[in-house]
Amino acid sequence: xxxxxxxxxxxxxxxxxxxxxxxxxxxxxxxxxxxxxxxxxxxxxxxxxxxxxxxxxxxxxxxxxxxxxxxxxxxxxxxxxxxxxxxxxxxxxxxxxxxxxxx
Length: 103
What we know:
By secondary structure, the chain is of the alpha+beta class.
């Protein structure tokens, strides 16, 4: 299997197609930044199902980018793909999974 079949590219990020998590309106993938090789989590949200929340999501991600605290997952980047109506949140990656695993 070629690398192209197992990954896709979003701007400067290479994203593995194998899903590592799932939310009510999203899928989460593992990826990395091509520039600095930093491993990231990529949250894919379909805006078609959340179209009435599009402005709220944009506003919230703008705020999230400014937050910097050890107990808050860092948002590195937001990518809006108008051709697929998806928004991708490039987040700090934690190998031990999400918070729900600790509850």
